[in-house]
Amino acid sequence: MKINEAFKKYSLVPVRYENVGKVRIIDTDKGKFVFKEGMLNKNILDYLNSRNFDYLPKWINSCDDEFQITNYIDDFNIPLEQKIMDMISLVALLHSKTTHYKEVDNEEYEQLYDDLDNNITYLYSYYTDLITIIESKVYMSPSEYLLARNIGLVYDTLDDVKKRLEDWHKLIYEKRKQRRVVLHNHLKLDHFVRNTASYLISWDKAKIGNPVFDLYKLYLNHVLDFDFGEIFKVYEKHYPLLDDEKQLFLILISLPEIINFGNDEYDNTLMINKAIEKIYKTNEFTKTV
What we know:
Number of domains: 2
Structural class: alpha+beta
CATH topology of the largest domain: Aminoglycoside 3'-phosphotransferase, Chain: A, domain 2
Number of strands: 9
Distance between the termini: 49 Å
Order of helices and strands: HEEEHEHEHHHEEEEHHHH
């Protein structure tokens, strides 16, 4: 549906458009709104309302529409370090307000264990093949040399993750209940707005799941930007993770990334440098948890 038709359906007259990423900020005769393609998850919104979690935009349109129209919220200009602390406090509140427990059987945990174990095995094989090719060359490129110098760190990290996975497996072997929450499922600083109150925006991917996965995605998006040790402390002050949840979180964030070399050597070197820096920072973080 075209924007004019969508807004006409809700008696709004667009005056001016501004594209911001995947959304459009639209001035109308009745104020400023945000337009985005994609349907709402009515069950998630109803559940959030039932739990009195109202730190999200107000939707103007119906959940049956294949688009979203929400009120526009101005974002105060505050230091990013403070902003992410405000964000993680709100995420902890989201998880706290929506916590419930689901009966699970051993098969579900075993499937997750097998998936993670297979991922570790694949990464071992992937990096072994990659470094074999690199070391066979007469002259390594700067990015290849940087990876070769740090390949021991990658293998040590995979060894540590494997041990941690086995410890996690022992923790959950007899477990039959899993803590579930509403996951925003797309956490990054761009999806947090600080006004007179705090708000999470962009709820397209929201679902029910393990709270660990919100933290995991936030970590991947900002591990090189902030001291995640302090962020994690704030989260746990309001919503402490269970032992098995904490171990799963540490496993997920510690898995090394897949390296995809491109044609630009500068970009390749930057990519490898960031991947190695992430491993170093993650190893330091896991020692403090």
